[in-house]
Amino acid sequence: MPLGSSHGPEAETPESGSADMNPVLVVHGGAGPVSEDVKERLRQGIVRAATVGYCILREGGSAVDAVEGAVVTLEDNPEFNAGKCAFRLVNNVSPVKLLPHNK
After folding, report:
1. For 4-15, what is the mean pLDDT?
2. For a FRET experiment, which of 23, 42, 49, 89 has its CA 20 to 30 Å from that of 71?
């Protein structure tokens, strides 16, 4: 499953450029109380979003492309409110952006 985590400084860190290095993508689908049937649908949506992003990384895509793929997957899923920013500026513009480091 394309979900993973490391815990603390004792986690192994492959050398830079190591062939053993695997990408990691973490997807957060929100928080709050939900019923069991909704919880399962949310879990499935999170796994789908993580899988989309992970596949982009495994196929050589950039981290920005992977994040965009995962976020778009959440935005396209009606179970999530991704893309429907709760906070908007006075001119109704969302303050959320995804920019590569060189922009």
Report:
1. 46
2. 89
